[in-house]
Amino acid sequence: MAKKYTLPRKYADKLLLYELSLQDPAFEVEFAVRQYRKRRGRRPLVLREDFCGTALNSCRWVAEHREARAIALDLDRSTLDWAHTHNRAPLAGASKRVDLRHQDVRAVTRPKADVIQAFNFSSYLFNPLPELMTYFRCVRRSLAPGGIFMLDGYGGWDSQQILKEPRTVKSPSGTFGYVWDQADFNPIDGLALCHIHFEFKNQKKWKQAFTYHWRIYSPPEIRDALTATGFQNVTILWDFEDDEDASDFRPAKQVDNCPGWIFYVIAEGSS
């Protein structure tokens, strides 16, 4: 039986739907500040958000501290325009501390950042492995002394299956359906084809609102690539919380495998 959602399709904005479905800027900003402070004993002030999309983390970053600055990089001009209208402009005076840039993340090394984030599995877009390592080298050159690089990934045996994972998302305007669709996976090269679909009131659908062709790198592949490109103290953080609505990411060297998991990696550029 089809689920009954209340959000009409005609009012849907796919970038807002993405934010509501997948992003948690409060957690990701606090997480970055906590991890940096743990290593350096002070608050980081400059964030670079690679593959920023709607720059939600960057805007949250500057809103939380009057001296904080953010550089947000993305290749999609229309998404950056949306980010300015919906996320940066409402910051009023603080908006000048968010630098939205329509640039390739591999072409920018200044200004130097205390924290560089590449979330939402964005590093998986680089394939083959030497391309990923080229990106990592650029990141290391872009970090200020004492800076850290943060990225995320996913895996587990379900990540190699053809499957769809639906769930209901609540928004101020009503409920809608979010569907993660793993359409193809090649175990020989690790390449996956994934889509995001949305579902609405009266069984209306937005198929393939987002599509991703990427390589699913494992934690040791990422760790070894970071080490080979000059990063230090590469740490894999694993979620030890069983509750899907909570998280408890802590350093890990050995864990039990399971159908699906998400991990973070933190690497230091230089002390």
Topology:
Layout: H1 14-22, H2 25-40, E1 46-49, H3 56-63, E2 69-74, H4 77-88, E3 98-102, E4 113-118, H5 129-142, E5 143-155, E6 163-171, E7 174-186, E8 191-199, E9 205-215, H6 219-228, E10 232-239, E11 249-251, E12 261-268
Parallel strand pairs: 1-2, 1-4, 2-3, 4-5
Antiparallel strand pairs: 5-12, 6-7, 7-8, 8-9, 10-11, 10-12
Name the CATH homologous superfamily of the largest domain.
Answer: Vaccinia Virus protein VP39
Strand order of the largest sheet: 3-2-1-4-5-12-10-11
SS class: alpha/beta
Q: Number of helix segments? A: 6
Query: Please, what is the average pLDDT?
Result: 95
Beta strands, count: 12
User: Radius of gyration, rounded?
Assistant: 19 Å
Question: Can you tell me the overall shape?
Answer: globular
Helix content: 25-40%
Helices and strands, in order, run as HHEHEHEEHEEEEEHEEE
Q: How far apart are the first and last residues' alpha carbons, in Å?
A: 57 Å
* Count of discrete structural domains: 2
